[in-house]
């Protein structure tokens, strides 16, 4: 990364504009369209926004390398990291395999999206000329530019240095009245978990916290991002249900889908997952399938907030299923940490 960062030198009151960037200095889809008008056969409207912005940025970088000088966008280019080697998709495959499966799934989707965007750009550039010249775009140059725009438009890249404190609360929007992109201090703003940050930006954030003393009398410290969560859809689908009969799981899935409770099951550090626990309560009915219709009726009452639980036995069974999921995740994590330790020793890395 660039090694740069931005910080406040005094307390900023809520509602205070922190930064305002005039529209002239923003790379937008209009900037891209205007630039490529001089090229024949290039109509960037056929590209999605991220693909088009990345094409413009890659061309500006190549133009600078070829011509040097004081190009209008050179200062902008200087603010962007020279590489994105810490982004999850660019990590060595050996390390990627040690990441949680939800991160690996995000990597796979990101790579797929990039490949589609790159193919669309190359098709657009085929045959396009400017005064007899052609744009020769290397895949790695485009990848760098594409990663510079993680799902954002009208967003000066250096502003990413502002918003990754765990307690940062801002609003970032284009103000059409002032014709500028503005960042304003607020109380509430969307925050991201480390899986998203690693895939999109190539880093994670953490907050050191002290737990109760360990057996030796010393303090135990651990780090976390309070917005972290673990997606456990895979573990729920693989649950072993004591007493399960043929057709039961399909019936449960149908009921969960009908009630809007199928999938998107997460574990959070500070709270129980309402979706997950309600799903596990229904799966836990496997041990009492002869009374399933009665239990299902009570489950619907739980979901509707009419009663607190199906039964004490069902609640205990759901907790056992939750324990099984957590135990499996813990074992996988320990194995990955062990492999990471071996990897770091082999390559002389610190972790």
Structure, described:
With 351 residues, the protein is mainly alpha-helical. Helix content is 43%, strand content 9%. It has 12 helices and 7 strands. The strands form 3 sheets. A 3-stranded antiparallel beta sheet has the order 1-3-2, with no helix packed on it. The protein has a two-stranded antiparallel sheet with strand order 4-5. Helix 2 crosses helix 6 and helix 5 runs parallel beside helix 7. The longest helix has 36 residues. The protein is elongated and about 80 Å long. The model has no long low-confidence stretch (mean pLDDT 82).
Features:
single chain, 351 residues, mainly alpha, 3-stranded antiparallel β-sheet, two-stranded antiparallel ribbon, elongated
Shape: elongated
* Low-confidence sequence ranges: none
Mean pLDDT: 82
Q: Give me the side-by-side strand order of the main sheet.
A: 1-3-2
Q: H/E element string?
A: EHHHHHHEEHEEEHHEHHH
Rg from Cα: 26 Å
Q: How many helical stretches?
A: 12
Query: What's the main sheet like?
Result: 3 strands, antiparallel
Q: Report, as a whole number of angstroms, the end-to-end distance.
A: 18 Å
Strand content: 5-15%
User: Helix content range of the residues, please?
Assistant: 40-55%
